[in-house]
Amino acid sequence: MTAFDTPVRLTAVAAPDQPDVTPALEELYRGFEEELLVPLWTEIGDLMPAHPSSKASTHLWRWENLRTLADRAGHLVPVGRGGERRAIALANPSLGGRPFATPTLWAAIQYLMPGESAPEHRHSQHAFRFVVEGSGVWTCVGGDGPSGGGTDAVPMNRGDFLPQAGWNFHAHHNATSEPMAWIDGLDIPFQWTSEAQFFEFGRDALTPEECVTPVRSRSEQLWGHPGLRPLSATHATPGSPLLNYKWSHTNAALCDQLALERAGFGGTVEPGHAAVRYANPRTGGDVLPTIRAELHRVARGAATAPVRETGSSVFQVFDGSGVVSVGDTSWTVARGDLFVVPSWEPVSFRSEAGATDSDEGALDLFRFSDAPIFEALHLHRTQKDT
Amino acid sequence: MTAFDTPVRLTAVAAPDQPDVTPALEELYRGFEEELLVPLWTEIGDLMPAHPSSKASTHLWRWENLRTLADRAGHLVPVGRGGERRAIALANPSLGGRPFATPTLWAAIQYLMPGESAPEHRHSQHAFRFVVEGSGVWTCVGGDGPSGGGTDAVPMNRGDFLPQAGWNFHAHHNATSEPMAWIDGLDIPFQWTSEAQFFEFGRDALTPEECVTPVRSRSEQLWGHPGLRPLSATHATPGSPLLNYKWSHTNAALCDQLALERAGFGGTVEPGHAAVRYANPRTGGDVLPTIRAELHRVARGAATAPVRETGSSVFQVFDGSGVVSVGDTSWTVARGDLFVVPSWEPVSFRSEAGATDSDEGALDLFRFSDAPIFEALHLHRTQKDT
Amino acid sequence: MTAFDTPVRLTAVAAPDQPDVTPALEELYRGFEEELLVPLWTEIGDLMPAHPSSKASTHLWRWENLRTLADRAGHLVPVGRGGERRAIALANPSLGGRPFATPTLWAAIQYLMPGESAPEHRHSQHAFRFVVEGSGVWTCVGGDGPSGGGTDAVPMNRGDFLPQAGWNFHAHHNATSEPMAWIDGLDIPFQWTSEAQFFEFGRDALTPEECVTPVRSRSEQLWGHPGLRPLSATHATPGSPLLNYKWSHTNAALCDQLALERAGFGGTVEPGHAAVRYANPRTGGDVLPTIRAELHRVARGAATAPVRETGSSVFQVFDGSGVVSVGDTSWTVARGDLFVVPSWEPVSFRSEAGATDSDEGALDLFRFSDAPIFEALHLHRTQKDT
Amino acid sequence: MTAFDTPVRLTAVAAPDQPDVTPALEELYRGFEEELLVPLWTEIGDLMPAHPSSKASTHLWRWENLRTLADRAGHLVPVGRGGERRAIALANPSLGGRPFATPTLWAAIQYLMPGESAPEHRHSQHAFRFVVEGSGVWTCVGGDGPSGGGTDAVPMNRGDFLPQAGWNFHAHHNATSEPMAWIDGLDIPFQWTSEAQFFEFGRDALTPEECVTPVRSRSEQLWGHPGLRPLSATHATPGSPLLNYKWSHTNAALCDQLALERAGFGGTVEPGHAAVRYANPRTGGDVLPTIRAELHRVARGAATAPVRETGSSVFQVFDGSGVVSVGDTSWTVARGDLFVVPSWEPVSFRSEAGATDSDEGALDLFRFSDAPIFEALHLHRTQKDT
Question: Which residues does the UniProt record annotate as the domain Cupin type-2 (chains A, B, C, D) (predicted)?
């Protein structure tokens, strides 16, 4: 008899207005089980809710704890071929222990000791790195082949955002004398669930020439000038050709928005709330086909209105302190803390000065989400609660 | 202590080249558990395989068995508000007993008794109906409101394909004296996993005027003429404005392709293999944002080359008989049989005359898949095995 | 001295608020002439009017006269390599005697005697044929090479619309015992002015096999089924893959719209005014990159509201009779009559029964325009006068 | 008798293989004239050439002469409502004395005296300004209304490129004590020929607050950060939201390309030839729907290969000196000189040090063209002569 891999027992009663359980009805349900069938009428509440009601929970991870464990792993667990990366992923408490921050997004702290390299590989998963602290480690993102000539060494410093579209070879190397931590974001859960993943090993080692850290990547030299595109670049890939969005640019853009607001010209999302989206200069669209990334700045003393959105987000506090609310939960957050916002849960922020009480004290939040998936499929909705 | 909803126990050893399990390493893993973290290096084989390796199995459902159970349900289980539809879904044996034919696709037999109606509702899930047998039942698909004026009664007959993009109100009514069965295809699993679902009830009953079955729907009168679009239609929705793709057109297109091939002019996918894709006449693209639908005809005696593709498909045998191979499994199939093709599993067909040995004897296969999701996100691959 | 090819004399006075003409000012204008310069302030009224004010006139050409002259040319002027086509173009009376119906559009009557062929060539100009009377002549449109295998014989009958995107080889052949006339529409003036034209000769003669008239072209067998696209067709060209839009389909679509209106369901542009646009089934967009084509039916006794539009149109009366108004001019029109609507001139129609006073008596108008040019460049506007 | 506005006389003989001129043939041609018809066979050589053969000539305008005449006009001709702008246009010697640099493009020197303003207006023509010398004059580009709140003051300095999409209100003001000159580029000839122009007056005067020159425009504060877009900007217009492409960025991008080339990593179009295209950060595409703009740098001693392209270009020498070749014509050029490249004429450059023989000595060329028109319509071709 063909049957479910896991034993399954259908219940003959469920929805309102269903008939009494008679022997005939029981027999019908046993027939469903034998034929590997499940009726809609017992499942519709779970399958077709009035609005998204996430299987995931909201949760906060403290950066201090992550960093401590990552450092311990740096001393205990080698990085190399097979394991590929010393990356430790956020596992949403309600997703069965899987390393999934949300049903679609992966978020991990990655840690590299002085002199260490993570070997070259490529995968269909779209990825990025965001640096909350430290500097000097670089990543090496290649084109469509594992050749040295095709690679581009990209330095990483605090505040930098480094996207890497799927199927480009890449490795990492720490050329400094200090360990370094950063976060990785990928669409691993989305591709795992929808089953679209491809993976390939590259070279096991980088050349000495490749280990020299440049000041700027070649991608920045070609694509890092506002509103200008190189005539020499002709071929198109689905992701951004700009491989490092340096913090100095991001910070300047946010400062400019708040300055415009102060001058009475708008420019912000709402009072005291500046925000930029990392964009592909080739298309103006999202930086990766499945991942949106943004930096939000909430000026000192300002608060944002709760917003709901189809799909999930992961946030990391880049700077400042304040209070974050997701659904009914609130946390006081500090630099590096990470939290997730499940689908359709309202999220809002309030910037509050911490102990040092500086004059600036804005709350800076890095955010990434799966919104491009839903926008591409005409499934995206957003709602501002008032 | 914050912890996983379900008890989770991480294993300190996994990938090759991992260190011996020392107390320090054990402590590290217990620290991961406490902080809701999971290392990549123990999971990478599952998360990042060389190519998609589906959690789903291939499986065949016999139409005869489905139809018998559906008929029994027709006599035992009422259809109405709450349960909404008398739909009985294929549940892949390897997906935990959930009513998911594949990780992204829902396929169900729906059954309506003479005079019965299924109540009006709408949902973000994209849907279609395909009719393998019977006729006379119609579906009533509305626009963006539950008003009678906005609805369009669409008749259903054998071979007809009826798409219905998300968020349109719709109901069903059987105006004949015979029960009728058809299959429903939706992206329920995809939206359930990615958490994008919205649902709303419509009116509880249709008007008597709405219960008169027309020969052709209004959508066909406006959009059912090849290469012609009405100037009166201005607003765009994400799905096809054509609500019934009648079998007579589909059959004629397939006959034409085989006639072109016989005349030496190509026209087929490969020798003896004609195929059409249902297209949105407003864009030329897929008929639904998340679902592709096609009809394949394998001429008598012909066989197709195995093809692999990112994402999954569900097939229903519309006519003829033959042998179907998915991966290492083969079945002799007959009218109405349904089977699934998991991601990256090779699928091929051979048309073989059954007992009656008629002169025609082509094998006609209706297929739907999740390919538009992957194409929109630049994740689609296909490979012809030779 | 460098100077204008044609003697040019600039006038030193023009716009209001200009200074008196002094010797210094005269000297300035003579300096402009010498340096090949022209000031804006004397030309702005012509160059930048409040709205388009066409250099072209509206004009009506009577089909009877055109046909008579074309027939005379059929007996006096051979068709062959060099002259290429026996096509006689409408020359707008205000465009300097050039064979331009409007500043962007070419319209000509083409005439082929029994047994005659027009030789194969291709050009970047986008083209179509529309058949107002007669049948049996066919056109032979190829792909990207002048080989027999790539050609597709397309029959032509009354009411058929045959698009042919630029740079496809094509020839014509009259296999019947009667002469035949049709109209050609091209973007010759647009490409002549903007200087984008390429042209290449093909073969001088067709093969005997190619001279057999088919009932349907291969393009119709592949692409002539509503909402269905062949899986075998993979490469994309800028124009429609459907090479004949048969009258039976166009007529059915118009009848359906009027039937929907009578049933109280809208479907028409305005009361009594049905209209279809010829569309590319691969994209849903216009049938040619620079030319829009439509068929309008004004039911007997109905009248349309005046409409203005950026860009120009050419109309041909396909059937019926009535009154046409363009700007301040009105004509009573009959089958085959052609007229032009310059940019931003209001156009409207009234269907009136002629002598025979039949029950049908709708006024059928074929129209083509340059609207896709302006839509592609975000320059298109339309306005309904009330 | 209806007839051509201008007397037209058709010639009965033209193409090869045409019949002898008989009285019957003469009568046919007189019939054509009476009916406002022109045969294709006498015109095809002009209308359908093998490749574009421009009606325009190539020509060079010396900046020194332009500037002298503009300055004289500054003292003799007022600027104000009616004449609108003190702009003096290049008139191609072969285009009948019209102020058209090429069949599609307008190029003019605009000149504003200290304290002068040019009044507010808007038009459908797409426009830009490019500054070859001087600084301090600013332009004020508004949104979709003539209100002060919607305007954005944009400073202009040497090397800056300022696009302004059609139908935005704009004015100019010189707040300095020196006259200033810059060049205007528009698609006036294209819209004049295709008849798509709309024009509307705005306010006659600016407010005193609007006359304060800012360091950066608001558009730069919102959109001038590489790869970053503001979340606050939601509505889309067809042109770029970035209103000043500052020289410092353009120069840095060109330096970076040459540095990449020196380091062995490509990055240039060809050896010694760096080039950037001004892009719309919202789409990555051209900065204006009908106009492409680029800056080319030819390193000292380098030369470029001749290139042909559908459509026409206007170049201005921004810096350096060298030799320019267009078709069979060559000129030694200096700062500010302007020249035109007609459709399909090959153009190439050679950088040559002038008298001062500095170490840098690159030849910098600003270029604008009508290429987006042809690309949008699938009519664009380019060819590198070798």
Answer: 110-184
Q: How far is B7 from chain A (nearest CA, A)?
A: 8
Burial D357-380 (b: 16+ CB within 10 A, else e): eeeebbbbbbbbbbbbbbbbbbbb
pLDDT at A143: 60
Distance separating alpha carbons of residues D195 and C370, to the nearest angstrom? 11
Please report whether residue B378 resides in a domain.
yes
Examine the domain organization and report whether C379 and C283 are in the same domain. Answer: yes
Domain that holds residue A1: 1-8+15-48
**Cα gap D2→C20, rounded to integer Å:** 42
Which percentage of chain D shows pLDDT scores above 70?
93
A251 and A319 assigned to the same domain = yes
Per residue in C195-250, pLDDT (tens digit) is 999 999 998 888 887 777 788 999 999 999 999 999 997 656 788 999 999 999 99
Same-domain check for residues C43 and C65: no
One domain for residues D73 and D5: no
Q: Which residues of B touch C284 (CB under 8 A)?
A: 229, 280-284
Band the pLDDT of D265: cuts 50, 70, 90. Answer: confident
Q: Which DSSP symbol is given to D58?
A: P
Q: What is the pLDDT of residue A1?
A: 40
Q: Does residue C119 register a pLDDT over 80? A: yes
Note whether B207 and B279 are same-domain residues. Answer: no
**Region B15-32: what's the mean pLDDT?**
86
- Yes or no: say if B199 and A381 are a contact pair by the CB < 8 Å rule: no
Minimal Cα distance from A216: which residue of D? D256
Of B222, B252, B287, the CB nearest to C225: B252
Amino acid at A372: P
On whether both B368 and B278 belong to a single domain, the answer is yes
Give every strand in the sheet of D382-384, ordered side by side: D329-333, D322-326, D347-351, D307-309, D382-384
Position C386 confidence tier, pLDDT thresholds 50, 70, 90 = confident
CA dist D66 and D71 (Å) reads 9
Based on the domain organization, do D348 and D205 belong to the same domain?
no
Amino acid at B335: R
* Token pair for C226: 């509503």
**Number of Cβ within a 10 Å radius of residue B360:** 9
* Chain B neighbors of C232, CB-CB under 8 A: 257, 266-269, 275
B67, B37: one domain: no
For residues B107 and B314, is the Cβ–Cβ distance under 8 A? yes
Residue of A nearest to D280 (CA): A227
CB atoms within 10 A of CB B378: 18
Q: How far apart are CA B126 and CA C164, in angstroms?
A: 36
> What average pLDDT is seen over chain C?
91
Q: D: neighbours with 3+ CB pairs under 8 Å? A: A, C
**Residue (of D14, D245, D42) closest to D130 by Cα position:** D245
D94-152: pLDDT as tens digits? 999 999 999 999 999 999 999 999 999 999 999 999 999 988 888 888 764 433 346 78
Residue A356 has pLDDT above 70, yes or no: no
User: CATH number for the domain including B260?
Assistant: 2.60.120.10
| CB-based contact D249 A259, cutoff 8 Å | no
**Considering the domain boundaries, does residue D189 fall inside one?**
yes
Look at C227 and B240 and tell me if their CB atoms are within 8 Å.
Answer: yes
Bridge partner residues of B127 (DSSP): B164, B186
* Shortest CA gap A210–chain B (Å): 25
Q: How far is it, in rounded angstroms, from Cα A169 to Cα A188? A: 17
B267-320: pLDDT as tens digits:
999 999 999 999 999 999 999 999 999 999 999 999 999 999 999 999 999 999
Residues of D in contact with A268 (CB under 8 A): 232
Residue of chain C with shortest Cα separation from B152 = C265
> What is the nearest CA distance from D302 to chain C, expressed in angstroms?
30
